[in-house]
Amino acid sequence: MRIAVVQLAYGDEESFEARTERVAGLVSGLSGHDLVVLPELWAPTGFDYTRWDGEAQPLDGPWAGAMADAARSAGVVLHAGSFVERLPEPGVDGNTLANTSLLFGSDGGLLATYRKVHRFGFGAGEPKLMEAGEEVMVLDLPDGAGGTVRTGLSTCYDLRFPELYRRQQEAGAELVLVPAAWPAARVGHWTLLGRARAVENQCVVVQVNTGGTHARTPMGGHSQVVAANGEVLGEAAHTDEAVLSVDVDLAATAAYREAFPVLADRRL
Description:
With 268 residues, the chain is an alpha/beta fold. It has a single domain, classed as Nitrilase/N-carbamoyl-D-aminoacid amidohydrolase (4-Layer Sandwich). It has helices spanning 16-28, 52-55, 62-74, 126-129, 162-170, 187-201, 250-259, and strands spanning 2-7, 9-10, 35-37, 77-86, 97-104, 110-115, 130-131, 137-142, 148-153, 175-179, 204-208, 211-214, 217-218, 224-226, 232-235, 242-247. The strands form three sheets. Strands 1, 3, 4, 5, 6, 7 and 16 form a seven-stranded mixed beta sheet that branches. A hairpin with a 5-residue loop joins strand 8 and strand 9. Helix 1 runs parallel beside helix 3. The chain is globular and about 50 Å long.
């Protein structure tokens, strides 16, 4: 399975509209991949909370339309990262926004919607402004070889909560996608936790971060693809914009689980 990891770098000077157009064009040029993955909140920015309400859109808004068109143009499955969704009505916390990821098929059709379960901000930012998701999302994606791969969706701060990934593994996940806007101050945690989630669940973890600086926050970059045995198959060891093209042997995950059947020894 050929996966394109798109580590976007941006600053405050680039508008939502300009960045959306630029990234849609970039994705359209990635034909030949089976799956393309973008970072979290790359259009409205991950840390400039003051922009979120003004740049929120519904699920069928122009941002989603641009991403659907890009997936169709490239003929790829596209995890478009996440955007600020304008909910049709307030949620249980009274908020009308959500940090929502969209996954499109190669025909541009919407395959899945995932709303971030764990909100970052310690009472500010996401917990104050956004509704939390409640669904553990696992689905089958085309593997590029005529079959499918069971895939779990998560976002950024979710990575710190292993219970989510264990539930995905129990639902059959062999591949996990983690778009993020992870800051440089804690990028060591980003790479370490990604490898930990891969090893403890014996699954492939695809981590896609942002680079650049926005809202005075330097972003961490260092996107990576980690195999089920913890081997890093590809990485962007920097914070610049980059596209990693990584070939993942999905059969190796099943073979590793059979050769080292640690998951069968769980007692809790």
